[in-house]
Amino acid sequence: YLIFIDGDCIPRRDFVQAHLEAREPGFYLCGRDVRMSEQFTRRVTRAYVESGRLDRLNLALLWDGVFGRSKWTGLAIPLGMQLPRYLDERRRRTFLKGSNASMWRRDFEQVNGFDESFVNQGREDSDLGSRLSIAGVRPRRVRYRAVIFHCFHEDHHWYRREHLG
After folding, report:
1. Sheet order of strands, 147-150 included
2. Is the sign of the CA dihedral 152, 156, 158, 161 positive or negative?
3. Which region among 46-50, 74-78, 153-157 has the lowest average model confidence (pLDDT)?
């Protein structure tokens, strides 16, 4: 079983467990990432992560999200086990993000994996998801169960003002 995460992401301690518990033949799993602001990313040291501060309710991160610096901080609120499963299953629309996804190796190989001919970030993810769906492998959300924290870096296009709608 393959679990994908970007190198600039920090998984919550239960990240792998969440993917493994939700796996099922015929499905690939799609998560989301909490996008930490530049200011908040500076706080996140190795000691900060090892202390477990990202694994429990983090008011500083939520506050950063209230002011629009970090994004999708609500995903980081620990909700137990049943509510996140309910929230994930309630919504049907989903898309594959290579920073938080998983699938059976045979499904990945069946569609020849990621298309490495893409030049800019992001399109190879949706392309893989499309090819999996065409092959009959269906998406399933783990947005509220498999949580990762994406560290800020300069080339993040989602923080640039010209990309904000």
Report:
1. 9-11, 147-150, 32-35
2. positive
3. 153-157
- Written as one letter, the residue type at 129 is G
Residue 53: how many other CB atoms lie within 10 Å:
15
- How far is it, in rounded angstroms, from Cα 67 to Cα 120? 29
pTM beyond cutoff 0.90: no
Q: For residue range 107-132, what is the model confidence (pLDDT) as tens digits?
A: 999 999 988 887 766 678 888 989 99
Asked if residue 42 lies in contact with residue 70, where contact means CB atoms within 8 angstroms, the answer is no
State how far the Cα of 151 lies from the Cα of 36, in Å rounded to an integer.
Answer: 5
As given in the structure block, the two tokens for residue 153 are: 């870096």
Position of tokens 């629009």? Answer: 68
How confident is the model over 71-82, as a mean pLDDT?
69
Cross-strand pairs, 138: 27
R_g (Cα) of the chain, nearest Å: 16
Please state, in angstroms and rounded to a whole number, the distance separating the CA atoms of residues 50 and 48: 6
Give tens-digit pLDDT for 32-43: 888 899 989 999
Greatest pairwise CA separation for the chain in angstroms: 44
Burial environment of residue 91 by CB neighbours within 10 A (0 to 12, 13 to 18, 19 or more)? exposed
